[in-house]
Design a protein that fits this description.
The protein is mainly beta. The protein contains three helices and 18 strands. The protein has a five-stranded antiparallel β-sheet with strand order 3-2-1-4-5, with no helix packed on it. Strand 9 and strand 10 form a beta hairpin.
């Protein structure tokens, strides 16, 4: 079955003046001329094309070789490009913009601003968007994640306690403010870790590995940085946290622990305004 909002590999079976017809089993779908690949050999009868299927302005399934920002089930950062009496239109890389109706908006959306939007099929099988992520993503650890497990995170926005983040495109968790060691904004993607299990079952997140893992990795990063900068660095254990974070993206506490490890190993010496590498 050719599903709307998904990619499909379909066979070219017919040429028309306004495009080509693709087929899967007994289903046929139009790939319009404006969406045809530049290499005409790919249009030959019997060739197979990977296409994305969505609904055109008359709600008919149609294929495209254009690549949208996401497919049904994805949460992605999109920019507002239009407003109507029904809701807000988002640019998601296709000719037909993605509609986020007013009832699917967590708060009013402004022109030119970007928001994390979940892509879903509405009751009429139209592809739509929502900023009410908690309606579509699981906020509870249902046994899927283990403590300290590495996960993919997408920053979804601020909350009173810190930052909401999409986990592995399926769950929603919280990065508490005291876990934030560098500036964050909606749409940022990076690796994180599952934090301590909460009594209510909701998911806490952390951006830092366990202390001993951080010291091991960070000490290697500091050594490499010093080797690349003449064996000296102007950041000591007394430097401001912001200056440390700007270079190594870690807390001052972890930086001091990593320096302590290097000092005990006899690899560095401390000076008033610098740390120096001991040359072997």
């Amino acid at each position: 079955m050719i599903e709307v909002g998904k990619y499909h590999t379909l066979e070219v079976i017919k040429h028309l003046d306004f495009g080509i017809i693709l087929k899967h089993d007994d289903e046929e779908i139009l790939l319009p001329t404006q969406s045809l690949p530049q290499d005409e050999k790919l249009w030959d009868i019997g060739q197979f094309l990977e296409v994305f299927v969505y609904l055109d302005s008359e709600d008919r399934p149609i294929a495209t070789t254009d690549i949208p920002s996401g497919t049904v089930g994805d949460s992605v950062l999109l920019t507002v490009v239009g407003q109507s009496d029904f809701g807000t239109f988002m640019d998601w890389g296709l000719t037909k913009d993605l509609l986020v109706t007013f009832k699917e908006q967590n708060k009013p959306m402004n022109m030119g601003r970007s928001y994390v939007v979940h892509i879903f099929l509405d009751k009429s099988d139209r592809i739509a968007g929502s900023t009410k992520l908690s309606n579509y993503l699981d906020e509870f650890n249902d046994g899927k994640f283990e403590f300290r497990e590495e996960v993919d995170l997408l920053i979804a926005g601020r909350s009173d306690l810190g930052y909401k983040a999409v986990i592995n495109n399926s769950h929603l968790g919280l990065i508490h403010q005291n876990e934030v060691v560098r500036p964050l904004k909606s749409g940022d993607r990076f690796k994180g870790y599952i934090g301590e299990l909460r009594e209510d079952g909701r998911i806490n997140l952390t951006l830092q590995k366990l202390a001993y893992e951080v010291r091991e990795e960070l000490s290697d990063v500091i050594l490499k940085y010093m080797q690349d900068h003449g064996g000296i660095i102007g950041l000591t254990d007394k430097s401001p946290p912001g200056e440390i974070n700007a270079i190594f993206h870690v807390s001052k506490s972890n930086y001091k622990k990593a320096l302590g490890k290097l000092f005990k190993e006899g690899k560095i010496t401390f000076h008033e305004k610098s740390v120096r590498l001991i040359q072997e």
